[in-house]
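The instructor's notes for this session suggest beginning with a concrete chain rather than abstract definitions. Hand out the sequence below and ask the class to guess, before any prediction is shown, which regions might be ordered.
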Amino acid sequence: MKIEIFDQTYSLNAGDNEEYLRKIAAYVDEKMRTVAQATRTIDSVKVAVLAALNIADELFAARERQQQIEGPLRKHVEKCITLVEQAIEHSN
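After discussion, reveal the predicted structure:
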């Protein structure tokens, strides 16, 4: 399949995930265009690096939020498992 990002066409093998790949390509294209407009930069390599930094920042922030949720949740789940195991032991 062919996708276009920042006026460049790329041929990729998407397998069964064409729609997903189109969404990702559109997202990257949007980020690059936003960076190009904000920085008034036309150098596609600089735009790509700045867009990659923005996307990496989003990823790191999402991972941090996920860890903040998973940490306490994992502790609660482990506590529940311990309580269930204790209840099973006492019922035998």
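Then share the key points. Residues 44-91 form the longest helix (48 residues). DSSP finds two helices and two strands in the chain.
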